[in-house]
Specification:
Blueprint: E1 15-20, H1 24-40, E2 48-53, H2 59-69, E3 74-82, H3 88-107, E4 111-118, H4 121-126, E5 128-130, E6 133-134, H5 135-150
Parallel strand pairs: 1-2, 1-3, 3-4
Antiparallel strand pairs: 5-6
Helix pairs in contact: 1-5, 2-3
The structure holds the ligand Nc1c(NC[C@H](O)[C@H](O)[C@H](O)CO)[nH]c(=O)[nH]c1=O and ligand LTPLIIQW.
Length: 153
Amino acid sequence: MKVVSGNLQADGMKVALVVGRFNSFVVDHLVSGAVDTFVRHGGNPEHITQILVPGAFEIPLAAQKVAASGEYDAVVALGAVIRGGTPHFDYVAGECAKGLGQVMLDHNAPVAFGVLTVDSIEQAIERSGTKAGNKGGEAMMSAIEMINVLKQI
Ligand SMILES: Nc1c(NC[C@H](O)[C@H](O)[C@H](O)CO)[nH]c(=O)[nH]c1=O
Ligand SMILES: CC(=O)[C@@H](O)COP(=O)(O)O
């Protein structure tokens, strides 16, 4: 049996971070986690472009334009959607996830989902560099692995 898998070497890669600024007190830590992970795996921080958009709802459109440009090996989407008292959360988080999935398949390009979709500020803090890790770093790791595995298929 032949097994195809991707390693975590990021040297030579160009990555775009598409970042929703909403809840920036959390999102800033996701950005740091993503950049640290890229550098720890051999990537050059100068090969990262950060694109800021208002919130998670706007991330897919910017990600689509980035993917269409063909200038980057992957898009890493970062943001934080925190549930409030109305159904708003479901619309914002749902459209963000759906849109990013669509961009990935339409453009045949890796798109990593580093957007927190959480019920509380506590859950967001836990997942942005404290007790439950850093979802920005995890998303970057997935992007690196996907870039490398797709090269081999
Ligand atoms: N409530 C959150 C939002 N809301 C803003 C939307 O993303 C969007 O910018 C607005 O509706 C204008 O189109 N965004 C987040 O990223 N996180 C939230 O918790
Ligand atoms: C995720 C959201 O959009 C949220 O912050 C909105 O809060 P609310 O439902 O209380 O308006």
